[in-house]
Amino acid sequence: MAHVTGDWNPLGEVFYRKVELYNMQHHWQQKADIPRCKIAAASFGGPIALMRDDRKTSNAPPARKPDIFIFSSSGKPISFFRWESGQLVDIGWSSTEDLLCVQQDGTVLTYDIFGKFHGRFSMGQVARDNEVIDARIFYNPTSGTSGVVVLTGNYKFYVVSNVKNPQSKKMADVPGLLSPPSCWTVISKDRDTFVMLTKDKILYVIDPGYCQEQGLENANGACIEMALSFDNQRIALFTDRGDIHVFTSDLQRKLCEFSTNSQIRPKQLVWCGNGAVVAYWENLLLVIGMKKNWIKYNLDQEAFLVAEMDGLRILQPDIQEFLQEVPDNVAGIFKVASMASGALLYEASREFQKKSQKADEYIRLIHDDLPNAVKQCLEAAGEEFEPNTQKSLLRAASFGRCFLTNSNPSQFVKMCQTLRVRNAAYDFTVGIPLTLVQLNRLSVEVLIDRLIRRREWELAMNISKYLKLSDSESRILTHWACYQVELKKKSDSEIAASIKSKLGDAPSISYSEIAKKASEISRNELAVKLLDYEPRASEQVPLLLTMSSTEAALRKSIESGDTDLVHTVLIRLMKKMKMQDFLMMLTNYPEAQSLYMQYCRQEQPQSLIDLHYQNDNFQEMAGCHIRNSYEQKTLAKQIDYLRSAQENYTRSRNEFAAKCTDEQRKLLDCQQQIEEKHEVEFVGLSVHDTAHKLIVSGLPKLAESIRKDFRIPDKRFWFLKIDALAVKGDWLEIEKFSKSKKSPIGYEPFVHVCLKYNQNFEAKKYVSRVAPEKKAKVHILLGLYNEAADLAFQQKNEDDLNQILRICSSNRELATKIQNMKAQLSRR
Fold this sequence. Notes:
alpha+beta
C-alpha cells in the first residue's frame, strides 16, 4: 500500500494527494509558454484554449493577430485558428464547451472546440461605446448555465446571465468608483447574479438592483485577490498584508483566517474542491485548510491552475496533475494501520491471492460488517485513476461478495461499467480525466455528447452500445453524417452512399436533419440525394421547399398520401410561382389538381375558374359560374353569372343544362318585374314557390302565366294551387276550382288540405267525389269509423279494417263488428 499513500499529505484530519494525470504531449510543450499566454481551461476535464498574450510581458500592442490553440486535457492538439476580429479582452469556456471570446467592443464571439464560428452577441451599446477593459466568464452550479460579466472603461458592470439566451443588464453603480477595482468576481446562485468587488479597503456587492457596502470581520488590509468556490458557497479573500480570509459567499459567516507571511499578490488564488484554498506563487503552491492547516508543494515549472468541483488541475508545460482531498473510502482502506472493514477486506483479498490462511482470519474479523466492507472497496475503486489499483479494489469487493448470501450484483456491475467508461474517456488519446464525482454530476449522456462534439464517434458509439443507450446511437450517427456532409474532398454521390451504408434504414435516424445540414452549406444536390433515404414525407417536403425543389416536394407529398401535406405544398407554391406557371404544372399532377380544386371551391372560387379555363373545361367553368351566381348580393351580377354559365354549357354541348340555366335567368327577370310592379319579394324563389306565393298574394293570373311560361305540370299546379288557397283561407275559391274541370289529382288532396287547416266541414264536401277505393281512408281521416268500416268491407280491404280496429280497440261494439267482417272475408 506504500505506493498508494506515497504522495499523500495530511491537512488536519484529512489527506490530500497530487496525482499525475498526463505527461503532456510534445505539441503542448512547444506552445505552453505559460507566463506569456492567456489560458482558459474548461471544467470537468474539458479542453484547454491557449493564446499568446504579449500584454502579460509588455504594454505594447500585439505585433500581429494571435493564434488560438485548442488542446485536450492530455495536451493532444484539437484545432487552432487565427484570431481575425477585434481586440480580445478575455477567453473562457461555457458549460457546453463552447469557447467564448470577449472583445473590447463588448461583442462576445462563440466557437466550438474545432475553431468553427457559431455566433455572437453583444453586451450592449453602452459597453460598445465605453469599451470593455475586463471580463469574467462564470458558471451557475444551480442551472448549469454560463454567463458573462464585463467591466467597461467608465467602470460600469454589465451582465449576460445565460449565453444561450443573451440579454444584457446593467449592474448597479458603485459610488466613487473612478478607477479599476482591486479585484472582483461573479457569484451566480439560482436566478441571481452578483458582482463582488473591492476598492481600497471597501468591499461591495452589486446586482442589477442595488449596491451594498459590506464590512468584513477582522479583515485588516485591502483585498487584492479573491476566489469563489466551485459551488459558489464560499469565497476566499487575499489582502495586501498577506492574509487569507474565508467567508461564506453571502459574507455572513467567517470560516477561516490564515497568514501566508507574503505580501506579494499570488499569481492565482483558487479553490481545491470546496474544502481548501490554494495560493500559487512562482514555483510554490500553498494549500490551506479551513482549520489553518497547510501543505506546501514546490513546482519545477510555471503552472496554471484549473478549479474542479472536487479538486484542482495543475497544468505545466510537461505534466498535468490533479490535486484533491483523498476520498474517505480510499483513505479508510489505504491509510497506515487502518482497521476499517474495507481495509481488512482488501488485506484478506491480497492474502487469498498469496494462498495464505490469513485471509480467513481477516474475513472472520469483519464477518458482521462484510456488506459495508464490500461497499467501501467498490466505491474506493471508483475514486482511483490507476487501473491496477482499481482492479485490486474490485477484486477485493468480489472476494467479499462470495461470503454474502443475499448479495445484489447490480452495484458491482454498475461500478465496473462506470470504470470502463471513465478509463476510456481518461485515455490520453481522448483526454477527459473525470473523477467519479464529476462523472456522476455530468452524467454519461452528457459525456457522450461531449465525445460526439469532439468527433470521437467510435468511442461514443461503443459506450452507448455497452450501456445500451439506444437513444444516443442515433445522435452519434447523425452527428457523424453531418460531419461527412462538410467534407469537400468527396463527391455528393460518394458521401450519400457512405452515409446510407453506415446508417441504413434505422427508424430513429433522421435523414432530413442530415440533408438540412447539406442545404445549409449550399450542397443542395447532396441534400436531395439524402432526402431520398428519408421515409417520412413530412420531414422531406419542408426541406425540399426551402431548397426550391418545388416539383420534387409536390411529388413526395402526393406519394405520401397525406392530403394536408399536399395542401401545404400547394399553398407554398401558389405564393412562390406565377399563377400561369403554377396552373400549368398542376396539369401533370391530377391528384394535386383535384385537391387544389377542392381548396379553391372553399377559399378562392376565381382561381378555380382560371384552372378550368387553362384546361378548356367549359362544363366545370359553367358549374363555377352557377355557384358564384348564388353568392352574389345583386340581381344584375347573378344574371351575368348565369349568362356566362349558359354560354359555357353551350360550348361544352350540354344543351339540357344550358336550357335550364336560361330558364333560371328568365325566372329571375320575371321575378324582378313582379317585385317592381307589386312590391312583393319574389327574387330567389323556385318556380313552384313563385306560383304558390302569387296565388297567396292574390295574383292568380300571374300564377297562370308562370305555369304556362315554365311549363308547370297540371298535377303539380293543382297541388300547389289548392295549398296556396288554403293558406290564404279562400275555401270558396277552392270549391270553385274543384268544379272548374275534372281534377287531375283526384279529390282526396282536397280533403287533406282542408283537414290540414282543421276545416272538417269543408273536407266533407269532397268525400262523395273521392274515388271509391280511397273513400274508406278519407272516412278514417274524418273520424267516421263505422262508415269507414262498411266501405272497407264493401271493398274487401282487410288492411283498412285492421287500421280501424287499431284506432277503435276501446270501442267493443265496433271492434266486434270489424272482427265479424274480417271473419266473413276470410271465409270467402
